[in-house]
Amino acid sequence: MVEKLTVIFFIVLCVLLGAYLILAPWDTLFGNWSENYLLALVSDRSGLPSIHRTVSSTWFRGAVTGLGVVNIAIALWEAIHFKQSVAMLQGSNPDGSK
User: Fold this and answer.
1) By the 8 A CB rule, do 7 and 82 touch?
2) Ranges assigned E (strand) in the chain
3) Contacts with 21 (C-beta within 8 Å, 6 or more apart), sequence order
4) Residues 37-56: what's their mean pLDDT?
5) 3-state DSSP call for residue 27?
6) CA diameter of the chain
7) Which of 4, 43, 46, 86 qualifies as a FRET site for 32, CA 20 to 30 Å off?
8) 14: left (phi over 0), alpha (psi -120 to 50) or beta
């Protein structure tokens, strides 16, 4: 039972993280992506304003969105191969033998 819950929680985590990574760079619901206090602080303290420009660029936003898509794909793969993942965590083969 613990193995099944572990796989279910992993799938939920991947879906939620993927959705956040897909939406966060483009939507203002989570705040403006380029007006991040931590980003401005790191950029100012390091003396590299190129960090702020890079993270604010649409290329970087696209890369973060791509990571979100990868997370969603991992969640789908885990959901499709649910029994195999549970069997692996239990230490047995998917056919039931050890």
Assistant:
1) yes
2) none
3) 64, 65, 67, 68, 71
4) 83
5) coil
6) 59
7) 46
8) alpha
